[in-house]
Amino acid sequence: MPKKYHALPAPLHIYFRSASMLALVLLCTLLAAGCASTGGRSYTKSQARTAQSVKTGTITSIIEATIEEDSSLLGPAIGGVAGGVLGNTMGRGTGKVLTTVGGAALGALAGAAADKFMRSEKAYEFTINLDSGQTVSVVQSVDDQYSVGDRVRVLYSSDGSVRVVRQ
Q: Counting Cβ atoms within 10 Å, is residue 132 exposed (0-12), middle (13-18) or buried (19+)?
């Protein structure tokens, strides 16, 4: 005699929809958090209203680069939960277990990819010949158009950070 499968009670369907929505909201929050800038005109709160040493020079080289923050487990965790919840809404019996596990695995992979995407930004590596004769290299995110030969200011903060801004 074949097994009879019963639909989940209504409160559980609401729970799975709510959990999916929560995972989606958390993923959107993660995406929005990745929009922070580290360009030449972007300052942290601790850098504001502090004196900076300024040197001037000329850009001699510009190379495209990528700034990547350390990865976190947040993206894979949110993706895994969302994928598992979504997979749990499909199939029955053993199939339901497989779709839950598969959904969690695929969700974790998608979450890791989204996390990496959100934690990296386009940048430039500037090589600058300072007027003092010294040569420095600075990597920062793209916030303005620069060309080889441009005159720039190199700002040295007391926290050790360095930025390039147009003169």
A: exposed
From 46, 23, 36, select the one nearest 69 (Cα to Cα): 36
Distance in angstroms (rounded) separating the CA atoms of residues 111 and 129: 42
- For residues 19 and 75, state if they share a domain: yes
- Domains identified in the chain, total number: 2
Question: Between 109 and 1, where is the model more confident?
Answer: 109
CB half-sphere exposure, 66, CA atoms < 13 A: 8
90 and 136 assigned to the same domain: no
Measured CA to CA, the distance from residue 62 to residue 50 in angstroms comes to: 28
| Percent helix, percent strand, percent coil in the chain, to nearest 5 | 40, 25, 35
Residue 85 lies in a domain: yes
Q: Within a domain: residue 135? A: yes
pTM check: above 0.70? no
Encoded tokens for 71: 């990865």
Q: d(Cα 54, Cα 128) in Å, to the nearest integer?
A: 13
Query: How does residue 37 score in pLDDT terms, banded at 50, 70 and 90?
Result: very low
Whether residue 160 sits in one domain with residue 138: yes
Give residue 43's domain range: 39-68+121-167
